[in-house]
């Protein structure tokens, strides 16, 4: 446990980095009109459901503040609560393992499965196991991992990647899902329709035998209660309940920040989470267990994977409050248009833009350094966050860190820095600034040659082309404000 509170050097972080920067990946996604239609329809539906159930609670703001305070208490005393959790799990017959990073967690889980002799495991939907790339690690060891959550199953059968925290297959529509099932699911009815009930029944038939045969199950955990050692999984389909109860061995991989101090603290989050995530008053299935139950062997893997480094940043640690509800994704205009894959990480959207760079490190040459800029800073994510994470302020902080990291690796100033220095020099003197504004009218020459129907400037020469490559500029006025002010004699008054 000596790693707690200390940045982990060069961790094997798993699926927290993409192969492209966000601008490059988003550019491709924006050209996919079907993707935008799928995302727009799904996020609008979830937003509307959430708004209805949140409006029912007069004390929603107080609940939100309570959730934030509980999470901050955990982060302030994380070492103490983790020790308490370990003691309780051990006292109830479980085994606790500590993993510094993704590689270590995968090694632990793979070893535990191999020890049982199983060649196949069933999985409850888990962001932590996606984060570390557990399925790929198990496959490399000759062990098949079967996703049992419907959306995760769709992603797995489609040889795809999740694009949403709560609804991993949100980028797929019903007809696409039907074709995936027809192509990949053994024994499926060739006349399968795209009706939701028919698709769910096909998945149920496919998975039922897997549940009954499985000797090992792997889960995540939504919450862990330090005072009792109790873990909780909330879900909507019942597949989690099957995985948690039927197999002889249960392995849970949990981020070290998922703690709540007491049993009573749990009641706050069991109100906040379902309303913020699925737009429900309560989750259909809430499963809780303490240690080894009903003859199972239980193993808890506590995962750091950059969380200690995130905790060390006073202005960034609030990202660890996140309860993975995905409310911020559903209101984000950038996510709705670019989709989750553009973020590269298993954590997309606004929370991914602040969490992923902190978990992996914000070096100047990493693709994750572009994520804090994947936002309009509209503030909608903060308004809906059930634990009041101030994501916009955190994005600005991380942007500053990204710029500082890039500056530290360069000997010469960038074109942007040179331009800002020139502007600062001009604005420091009234005469210089007046002349600069007058010189800006030269932009009308470019406007006349590269203007759109509205007169806006579409193209400028390098290095200004970097701006007009993604944005339009209004043409400069024929007369500056300062010149107008002098001409009309307003300076005398």
TrEMBL record:
Domain 4Fe-4S ferredoxin-type residue range list: 319-389
Transmembrane segments: none
Superkingdom classification of source: Bacteria
Keyword Ribonucleoprotein: no
Keyword Iron: yes
LUD domain segment(s): 84-302
Record-linked InterPro entries: 4Fe4S_Fe-S-bd, 4Fe4S_Fe_S_CS, FTHF_cligase-like_sf, Helical_ferredxn, LUD_dom, LutB/LldF, LutB_C, NagB/RpiA_transferase-like
Domain Lactate utilization protein B C-terminal, first and last residues per copy: 413-488
Record key words, sorted: 4Fe-4S, Electron transport, Iron, Iron-sulfur, Metal-binding, Repeat, Transport
Name used for this protein in its record: LutB/LldF family L-lactate oxidation iron-sulfur protein
Lineage of the organism: Bacteria, Bacillati, Actinomycetota, Actinomycetes, Jatrophihabitantales
């Amino acid at each position: 446990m000596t790693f707690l509170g200390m940045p982990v050097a060069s961790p094997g972080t798993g699926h927290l980095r993409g192969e492209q920067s966000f601008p490059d990946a988003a550019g491709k996604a924006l050209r996919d009109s079907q993707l935008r239609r799928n995302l727009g329809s799904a996020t609008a539906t979830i937003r509307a459901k959430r708004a209805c159930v949140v409006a029912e609670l007069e004390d929603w703001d107080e609940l939100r503040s309570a959730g934030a305070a509980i999470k901050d208490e955990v982060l302030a005393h994380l070492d103490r609560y983790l020790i308490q959790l370990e003691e309780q799990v051990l006292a109830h017959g479980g085994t606790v393992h500590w993993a510094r990073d993704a590689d270590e967690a995968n090694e632990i889980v793979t070893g535990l499965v191999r020890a049982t002799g199983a060649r196949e495991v069933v999985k409850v939907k888990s962001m932590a196991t996606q984060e570390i790339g557990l399925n790929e690690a198990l496959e490399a060891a000759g062990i098949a991992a079967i996703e049992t959550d419907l959306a995760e199953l769709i992603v797995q059968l489609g040889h795809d990647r999740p694009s949403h925290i709560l609804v991993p297959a949100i980028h797929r529509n019903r007809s696409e899902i039907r074709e995936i099932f027809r192509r990949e699911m053994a024994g499926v009815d060739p006349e399968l329709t795209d009706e939701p009930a028919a698709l769910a029944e096909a998945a149920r038939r496919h998975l039922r035998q897997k549940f009954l045969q499985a000797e090992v199950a792997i889960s995540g955990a939504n919450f862990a209660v330090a005072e009792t050692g109790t873990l909780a999984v909330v879900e909507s389909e019942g597949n989690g309940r099957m995985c948690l109860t039927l197999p002889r061995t249960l392995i849970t991989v949990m981020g070290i920040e998922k703690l709540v101090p007491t049993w009573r603290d749990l009641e706050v989050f069991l109100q906040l989470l379902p309303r913020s995530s699925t737009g429900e008053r309560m989750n259909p299935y809430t499963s809780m267990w303490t240690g080894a139950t009903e003859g199972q062997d239980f193993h808890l893997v506590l995962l750091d994977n950059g969380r200690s480094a995130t905790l060390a940043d006073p202005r960034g640690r609030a990202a660890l409050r996140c309860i993975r509800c995905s409310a911020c994704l559903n209101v984000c205009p950038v996510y709705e248009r670019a989709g989750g894959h553009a973020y590269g990480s298993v954590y997309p959207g606004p929370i991914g833009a602040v969490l992923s760079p902190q978990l992996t490190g914000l070096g100047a040459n990493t693709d994750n350094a572009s994520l804090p800029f994947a936002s309009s800073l509209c503030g909608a994510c903060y308004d809906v966050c059930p634990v009041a994470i101030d994501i916009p302020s955190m994005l600005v902080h991380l942007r500053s860190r990204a710029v500082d990291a890039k500056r530290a690796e360069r000997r010469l100033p960038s074109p942007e820095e040179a331009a800002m220095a020139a502007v600062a020099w001009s604005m420091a003197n009234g005469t210089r600034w007046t002349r600069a504004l007058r010189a800006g009218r030269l932009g009308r020459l470019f406007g006349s040659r590269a203007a759109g129907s509205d007169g806006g400037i579409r193209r400028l020469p390098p290095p200004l082309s970097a701006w007009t490559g993604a944005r339009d500029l209004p043409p400069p006025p024929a007369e500056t404000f300062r010149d107008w002010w002098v001409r009309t004699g307003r300076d005398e008054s």
